[in-house]
Amino acid sequence: MTAPIDPPTADTSLADWLAHLERLHGQRITLGLERVQAVAQALGAAVRPRCPVVTVAGTNGKGSTCAMLEAIARAAGYRTALYTSPHLVHFEERARWQGEPLASERLTPSFAAVEAARRQAGDVPLSYFEFTTLACVHALLACQPDVLIMEVGMGGRLDAVNVWDADCAIITSIDLDHMEYLGPDREAIGYEKAGILRTGRPAIVSDPLPPRSVVARATEIDADLWLVGRDFRHSGDRQQWHWQGRTRRYAGLAYPALRGANQLLNASGVLAALEALHPRLPVPAQAVRQGLASVQWPGRFQVVPGEPLLVLDVAHNPHAVAALAHNLDDQGYYPQTLAVFGAMADKDVAPMLARMDALVDGWFFCDLPTPRAARAETLRAQWLGLTQRGDGLAEVHADPPAALQAALARADPAGRIVVFGSFYTVGGVLQHGLPRLGAKHLQA
Questions:
Q1: pTM of the entire predicted model
Q2: What's the pLDDT tens digit per position in 229-273?
Q3: Element (H or E) spanning 303, and its range?
Q4: Hey, is 193 helix, strand or coil?
Q5: CA nearest 429: which of 439, 438, 440, 418?
Q6: What is the 3-state secondary structure (H, E, C) of 228-246?
Q7: Counting Cβ atoms within 10 Å, is residue 45 exposed (0-12), middle (13-18) or buried (19+)?
């Protein structure tokens, strides 16, 4: 176990900083901006962006949207800073400079700066997420980016990311998740997401059926509201797609390198944001094409060739799992589909299991390394209580790697294994690198 550090210093390693923050605050979710604002004020110019800021909120599609924005901006020659959360394997994934995670040595001075500012502001208590958000943005702005892209952690209105005013806000699909914090329905959740909008500035809404609360908030503060189907739209066939905005259009686009049915909707919102930002961040058509063709974002319907095929997807709510099931159906026929599944205890697991029940021939439930996780045996019991299949297999395992190995032992080499349910589930199978599966008959 990492030894306690008190107080931390500029020489403290990133691993020790994170262990220290977890001991102080754990992974507790704390909403509200007053504490973060006080420490940001103490940090001063070091956390004041001198470049356009794009903030992305939503239930699903946030990370993919951020990745496409980053890829296109990089293809246009801009220096990009991207802040996202959570990470899959390494904390450094949260702060990306020019498409690559910042090295820990570039992050730790920012942790020390946030700690000094926190004390200067009167020992302001910060949650793990609040502290690390400030530190990551501090480190990224020190790189002097041309554009800062930030993914909201949860909600929007009271999320730490909302301390920074968005020059352009994007709201992706909205569905039921984190209801104990954000409210009981899409209208309440939409109101929280709309908290990132700013008066007079572009508000891109890529949800085709946005909650009324989002439109009402944009109207109330006189934001420049862009609605899909009204201000921008897309169409296409199996070979290519087309996009039209208010004054710009792109024809004959190749499909985004990110797979999945919803990625076209995410890409459409990205192009609307780029049109809205054009006066400050002009992007040529070739950069749009190159960025969409080259974008990568691990764990979002990530297909890893092998025998069997491996599919990694961080889908962790019913809406995302419905999209995952649709994408799996679109892959065509596979004689067998096995699932490695671990989830947080506060998630609405039953509809996720029910949606995948007909697709999955065998379940490999796993424990996850966080107190927030549901036990594998609990997940198995939930599945047994709702399955319509009499031939289904269900096992429990101590962690995602063990579950994946057990699934591989039972796999048809012509089939596929789907890993989903949580960032921890996908991150668990990626902790030693990208698995390349070979069914046991191939290893003789």
A1: 0.91
A2: 999 999 988 889 999 999 999 999 999 999 887 899 999 999 999
A3: strand 302-304
A4: helix
A5: 418
A6: ECCCEEEEECCCCEEEECC
A7: exposed
CA 382 – CA 133 distance, rounded (Å): 35
Residue pair 394/425 in contact by the 8 Å Cβ criterion: no
Q: Cβ(422)–Cβ(409) under 8 Å?
A: no
Q: CA end-to-end span of the chain, whole Å?
A: 40
Find where tokens 């809205």 sit: 276
Site of tokens 């095929």: 309
Helix ranges (H only) for 94-211 are 104-120, 128-141, 179-182, 186-193
For 123-161, letters b (16+ CB in 10 Å) and e give ebebbbbbbbbbbbbbbbbbeebbbbbbbbbbbbbbbbb
Share of the chain above pLDDT 70, in %: 93
Q: How far apart are CA 376 and CA 425, in angstroms?
A: 12
Q: Which of 407, 370, 345 is nearest to 22 (CA)?
A: 370
The Cα–Cα gap between 90 and 104 comes to: 10
Name the β-bridge partners of 56: 151, 170
In this structure, what token pair is assigned to residue 189?
């959740």
SS3 438: strand
Rounded-to-integer distance, Cα 69 and Cα 65, Å: 6
Q: If we measure between CA atoms, which residue out of 119, 124, 128, 123 comes closest to residue 94?
A: 128
